[in-house]
Amino acid sequence: MKYLFSDHSELYSQARPSYPVSIVQEILKLVQEHHFAWDCGAGSGQFTQVLAPYFDHVVATDISEQQLQHATYLENVSYQVQSAEQTTFADHSFDLISVAQAIHWFDFKKFYKEVERTLKPDGILAVIGYGLIHVEPLELNQHIQKLYFETLKDDWDVERHYIDEGYKTIPFPFEEIEMPVLKMQYQWSARQLLDYLSTWSAIKHYRKKNIDNPLIFIEKYLGCTSQPISVEFPVLFRCGKVSPKKQKKVLRKGSK
């Protein structure tokens, strides 16, 4: 898993979009028990906060201590610095394992072994994310499209293609459950939009190599408006269970 957001953890915690409860509600339809959940790659806890009210206890992990320090304190949540690919959790601990906007940074093979080991026999793995922002007015959206596809085209990490492909191409060796198509919608100020764009990893990479401001045209456009901006993200959503065959293998290993 990559360390990408530690050096602007506070901005990330403030500017990244919150997840709607509707995502959790869809996941809860699949989860049989609500005792123990693991939110992996939790960052500053955007998804953890939405998940926590529905479980007795949630453990939220990330490799970035700086990110976790900006997470909101919740009585039933413990924040731990742990890698997604190797944890200290006991076998068959979790009713739910969630990963929000992070799985594309993981070593899939190693993480999925941890999922198979730590998920309860009827537990659920929920992989969530959000794709490229779409805004109105359309002229502003065109500026963002140009920023994303032209100005920053050489500055995105290679793993970004998984998001561009809607998480449809990530390896997913589980019994998959079809999920509904959802969207995240907000009304943002100009400041909120600029702060969000500033959290893009490609912006950080661009600024290390160039002296010009990649957001200049968007800043100029936003400087001429005080109207709220309609913001929409497509939700990326994959859920599944460990197959009974794999589960038996894991259970046999655990009993030795």
TrEMBL record:
Recorded GO molecular functions are: S-adenosylmethionine-dependent methyltransferase activity
**EC id:** 2.1.1.-
Methyltransferase type domain residues: 39-126
* Coiled-coil segments on the chain, per record: none
Q: Name one Pfam family in it.
A: Methyltransf_11
Q: Which SUPFAM superfamilies match?
A: S-adenosyl-L-methionine-dependent methyltransferases
Statement: the UniProt record of this protein carries the keyword Transferase = yes
Q: Which UniProt keywords apply?
A: Methyltransferase, Transferase
Name the GO terms of the biological process aspect. Answer: methylation
Record bears the keyword Transferase: yes
For this protein, the record's Gene3D superfamilies field holds: Vaccinia Virus protein VP39
Q: Which domain of life is it from?
A: Bacteria
Q: What class of enzyme is it?
A: transferase
Give the family this protein belongs to, as stated in its UniProt record: Belongs to the methyltransferase superfamily.
Name the chain's protein.
Putative methyltransferase YcgJ
Which gene name does the record give? ycgJ_2
